[in-house]
Specification:
- It contains three helices and eight strands, in the order H-E-E-E-E-E-E-E-H-H-E.
- It has 175 residues and is of the alpha+beta class.
- Strand 4 and strand 5 form a beta hairpin.
- The longest helix has 16 residues.
- The protein is globular, with a radius of gyration of 16 Å.
- Bound molecules: ligand GNR and nickel (II) ion.
- Nickel (II) ion binds next to helix 2.
């Protein structure tokens, strides 16, 4: 297993649209293991392949309290969505920034397992929110894209400031 480097904004590679996973092989199993280790190592509840500079459609997440229920979604697609819910989001690729984002409250997702078998699932709560956040990464989108122009400027300013004092852990900013 290996921990992978997580890309951070404004890295343009985060804007890549990921292509479908086609090879359900040992390399894929290894990538899933490495992404899961990277997610837990960074104390995240989800991680999309895009964030580790792999531009294929897969993500891992674990929204359990005990952080011992990793889930894998390969070639995920939201096939239906209903309701709307607002949650304060953060992102490992946008360190130190937190803001309210509205997303569908319930989603039905189709996806594949690492062995290539297909499944469908109904998700709600944090599980639904995190899945939508991760699928956005696969489409080159970040949660800050949903913010007002004013709040986006605040994000840019804070990130510039952070970069000047690089090496320092970002202070928490809730926008
Ligand atoms: O760790 C994470 N927490 C989080 C909180 C609210 C909404 C979404 C997330 S996902 C994020 C990890 C991450 O950046 N995944 O892409
Ligand atoms: Ni993220």
């Amino acid at each position: 297993m290996a921990k992978l480097e997580i890309l951070e904004i404004p890295d343009v590679r985060l804007r890549t649209i990921a292509r479908p996973v086609e090879a359900f092989d040992a390399d894929l199993v290894q990538l899933v293991a490495d992404m899961t280790e990277t997610m837990y190592g960074a104390a995240g509840i989800g991680l999309a392949a895009t964030q580790v500079n792999v531009h294929r459609r897969l993500l891992v997440l674990d929204v359990s309290e005990s952080q011992d229920q990793p889930r894998v979604y390969i070639n995920p697609e939201i096939i239906s969505a209903e309701g709307s819910e607002t949650c304060e989001e953060g992102c490992l690729s946008v360190p130190g920034i937190y803001a309210e984002v509205s997303r569908a409250e319930k989603v039905r997702v189709s996806a594949q397992n690492p062995d290539g078998s297909s499944f469908e699932e109904d998700l709600d709560g944090m599980h639904a929110i995190c899945l939508q956040h991760e699928i956005d990464h696969l489409d080159g989108k970040l949660f800050v894209d949903y913010l007002s122009p004013l709040k986006r400027r605040m994000v840019t300013k804070k990130l510039e400031k952070q970069r000047k004092i690089s090496g320092q852990k970002p202070a928490r900013a809730v926008l």
